[in-house]
């Protein structure tokens, strides 16, 4: 942990009041849902800021009666401030709030970025704030259903050691499960989540497009049981759950796939090849793909995008 994160913390840092006033800076999909869940735990949302009309409507729906004000005013009113802005905007926001004197000593500054730990909150720390990084491992819709989905949701938690118990307690109050992530591991942690969730959406969308082109009326209904079983097997068994022509080394089938993709969906060829090569590597390493079948398969993959 960065030594600066332990310097200057007040002795009462880990002994916060049981109930806090809560503010949200950045009323996107995440902030209002977290504030609403904190309200259910007895905390009191008092202010939120949002730029777009959509964010303001979202805040009004999830946090009825809560004042919509400028970011500096959110900090003036709240003891716990949720900074729920895009990753790239977070450093500048923290620097700006600290430079203008909006940050108060003893104030809890909580960001929800997966990429960053608490180093990004150093300007606030120097102003006396208490920095926490609480990243909910969930996709958000911006509706009340998100509050329900927080039950059992993992949170990637990074905080100065004196604040670790307070950070984990806030997660538990929101219905989540705290998972400690070291500051230096945050980018790797976030990359793992992006591969698992963000890329999954792209793959599923591509699969649905291909099935629709093949005449399947409801590709979602067809894929649901298959993908659900594949996900469950993968979470339980890792590489042992690999199935399909690549894992078996069926070079002819893979070649046929590529031929069809080049005709009907050329934009899907690159992703098919990338995932097939990665699958082949893992199947080889686990012993599932036999070397005698691998050579022909890898040859098809090597020339797959060049025909």
Task: Please give a quick description of this structure.
It holds the Pfam family Rossmann-like. This protein has helices at 31-40, 53-62, 71-77, 90-99, 122-126, 145-149, 164-173, 186-213, 219-237, 245-248, 251-264, 269-286, 291-303, and strands at 21-25, 44-49, 67-68, 80-83, 108-111, 130-136, 154-158, 177-180. The protein is an alpha/beta fold.
What does this structure look like?
With 307 residues, the protein is of the alpha/beta class. Helices cover 50% and strands 12% of the residues. It folds into 2 domains: 179 residues, Rossmann fold (3-Layer(aba) Sandwich); 116 residues, N-(1-d-carboxylethyl)-l-norvaline Dehydrogenase, domain 2 (Orthogonal Bundle), CATH 1.10.1040. The protein is built from 13 helices and 8 strands. An 8-stranded mixed sheet has the order 3-2-1-4-5-6-7-8.
How would you describe the shape?
elongated
> What CATH architecture of the largest domain would you give?
3-Layer(aba) Sandwich
What share of the residues does DSSP label as strand, in percent? 5-15%
User: How many domains make up the coordinates?
Assistant: 2
The value of Rg in angstroms is: 24 Å
Class from secondary-structure proportions: alpha/beta
| Helix fraction by DSSP (H/I, runs of at least 4) | 40-55%
- The CATH homologous superfamily of the largest domain corresponds to NAD(P)-binding Rossmann-like Domain
Largest sheet: 8 strands, mixed
User: For the residues shown, what is the average pLDDT?
Assistant: 92
End-to-end distance: 52 Å
Looking across the biggest beta sheet, what order are the strands in? 3-2-1-4-5-6-7-8
Question: H/E order of the elements?
Answer: EHEHEHEHEHEHEHEHHHHHH
CATH class category name of the largest domain: Alpha Beta
Domain DUF2520: 153-279
Protein name: DUF2520 domain-containing protein
InterPro entries: 6-PGluconate_DH-like_C_sf, DUF2520, NAD(P)-bd_dom_sf, OxRdtase/DH_put_Rossmann_dom, TM1727-like_C_sf
Domain Putative oxidoreductase/dehydrogenase Rossmann-like: 14-136
């Amino acid at each position: 942990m960065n030594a600066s994160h332990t310097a200057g913390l007040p002795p009462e840092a880990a002994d916060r009041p049981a109930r806090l006033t809560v503010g949200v800076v950045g009323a996107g999909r995440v902030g209002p849902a977290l504030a609403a869940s904190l309200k259910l735990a007895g905390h009191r949302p008092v202010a939120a800021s949002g730029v777009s009309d959509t964010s303001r409507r979202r805040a009004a729906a999830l946090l009825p009666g809560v004042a919509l004000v400028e970011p500096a005013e959110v900090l003036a009113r709240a003891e716990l401030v949720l900074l729920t802005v895009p990753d790239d905007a977070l450093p500048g926001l923290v620097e700006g709030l600290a430079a203008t004197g909006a940050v108060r000593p003893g104030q809890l500054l909580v960001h929800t970025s997966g990429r960053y730990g608490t180093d990004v909150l150093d300007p606030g720390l120097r102003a006396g704030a208490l920095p926490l990084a609480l990243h909910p491992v969930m996709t958000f819709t911006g509706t009340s259903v998100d509050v329900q989905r927080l039950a059992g949701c993992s949170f990637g938690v990074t905080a100065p050691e004196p604040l670790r118990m307070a950070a984990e307690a806030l997660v538990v109050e929101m219905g989540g499960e705290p998972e400690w992530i070291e500051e230096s591991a945050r980018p790797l942690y976030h990359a793992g989540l992006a591969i698992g969730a963000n890329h999954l959406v792209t793959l599923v969308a591509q699969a649905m497009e291909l099935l629709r082109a093949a005449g399947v009326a409801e590709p979602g209904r067809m894929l649901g049981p298959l993908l659900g079983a594949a996900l469950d097997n993968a979470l339980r068994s890792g590489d042992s759950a690999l199935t399909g022509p690549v894992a078996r080394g069926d070079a002819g089938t893979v070649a046929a796939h590529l031929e069809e993709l080049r005709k009907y969906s050329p934009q899907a060829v690159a992703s098919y090849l990338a995932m097939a090569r990665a699958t082949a590597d893992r199947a080889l390493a686990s012993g599932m793909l036999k070397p005698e079948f691998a050579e022909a398969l890898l040859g098809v993959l090597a020339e797959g995008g060049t025909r």
